[in-house]
UniProtKB/TrEMBL annotation:
Entries under Pfam families matching the protein: YjdM, Zn_Ribbon_YjdM
InterPro entries, per the entry: YjdM, YjdM_C, YjdM_N
Native organism taxonomy: Bacteria, Pseudomonadati, Pseudomonadota, Alphaproteobacteria, Rhodobacterales
Name this polypeptide is given: Alkylphosphonate utilization operon protein PhnA
Annotated organism of origin: Paracoccus denitrificans (strain Pd 1222)
Domain Protein YjdM N-terminal: 8-36
Similarity comment text for this entry: Belongs to the YjdM family.
Keywords: Plasmid
Every Protein YjdM C-terminal domain range: 45-112
Length: 114
């Protein structure tokens, strides 16, 4: 078991800085949450050109996207503000102007530098 150190990330559940490592898992003594250090490294989501995306970023759609089960299309150049990153195939939850709430794949967006 590795002792609590400064270089371990805080708990993703409660933000406690008292995390410690047991084998391949990180553990939080305050809330009991356990997660893998590998998952921590893989959690980074990137756009189509490799920019790291964060919650709240603004992105632009780089390709016309047909909406499944509808005749609507999200047009290239559509700006989407305040994205939220989630786990899964469609890793961005957002509200698209004129269409509403939907999930996007990060490979079809580009981060807007503000």
């Amino acid at each position: 078991m590795r002792a609590m150190t400064e270089n371990l990330p805080p708990c993703p559940e409660c933000s406690s800085t008292y995390t410690y490592q047991v084998d391949a898992l990180l553990t939080c003594p305050e809330c009991g949450h356990e997660w893998s250090l590998q998952a921590e490294a893989e959690a980074e989501i990137r756009d189509s050109v490799g920019n790291v995306l964060r919650d709240g970023d603004t992105v632009t759609v780089i390709k016309d996207l047909k909406i499944k089960g509808s005749s609507s299309v999200v047009k290239v150049g559509t700006k989407v503000r305040g994205i939220r990153l989630v786990a899964g195939d469609h890793d961005i939850d957002c509200k698209i102007p004129g269409i509403g709430q939907m999930g996007l794949k990060s490979q079809f967006v580009k981060k807007v530098s503000e």
